[in-house]
Fold this sequence. Notes:
about 240 residues, alpha+beta, Ubiquitin-like (UB roll), Fumarate Reductase Iron-sulfur Protein, Chain B, domain 2, 5-stranded mixed beta sheet, two-stranded antiparallel ribbon, 10 helices, about 10% strand, elongated, binds iron/sulfur cluster, binds FE2/S2 (inorganic) cluster
Amino acid sequence: MIVRISRGRGERYDDFDVNITAEMTVLDLLFHIIENIDQTLAFRYSCRGAVCGSCALLANHVPLLACRTTLAKILNPGGSPRVSLPSGAEIPAGGILLEPIPRLPVIRDLVVDWEPFFEQYLKLEPALKEEKNLPDKEHLIGKDEVRELERYTNCILCALCWSACPVVGEVEGYPGPAALAKLYRFFLDSREPGRAERMLLADTDSGWWACDFYTNCRKVCPRGVPPNIAIGKARKHLKGEDQE
Length: 244
Ligand code: SF4
Ligand code: FES
């Protein structure tokens, strides 16, 4: 099988002829290449278990986690809905094309600089605020609230939604789907003292109101987080429609 990989900052693509099984994950494939063919190949990983988010890349134009996706799934995607992103090269016949995720600067090969993603994320203050008057007992949260919070706390900050969101490339200062989902998560949290003010952090033309509901964010998320739903609910709240 031919595996074509973007090298440097996308100046060229290298083809590797590999003898592997389709049950391997994309990350296994990258290890195979670095251990047997080319020690200079650069890629990122840490947990190898879909928890750290660092192995995000494009495989045959589809944004995904390398540690979680088998080659078989890429070669035979079946009927599952997929988001296909523009790319700088053709997929080799019957093979695999690997590229860094778009909308972030490339450092080398498959490694990107996450700074723009985290810069926007941190602007939305993604942590519980300190309460002035601490309660005597622990906060108790109902099951329904926990269930709703968990939809958004499952985010692993892999930036796949950022890379797949057209608005990120169109609107300067757009926080991106993951940051907005996180902001909504703190609005939902009854332990958060400044919930109302939270919503205003993104109440701008480049914030909540910039989303065009392409829904790519939800389709590519490996953890099932629905940023599009968070954005829709936040807008309803700001328009007062959730009080009706
Ligand atoms: S919302 Fe999903 S796709 Fe976006 S950063 Fe979080 S885990 Fe990744
Ligand atoms: S290596 Fe951590 S998510 Fe893939």
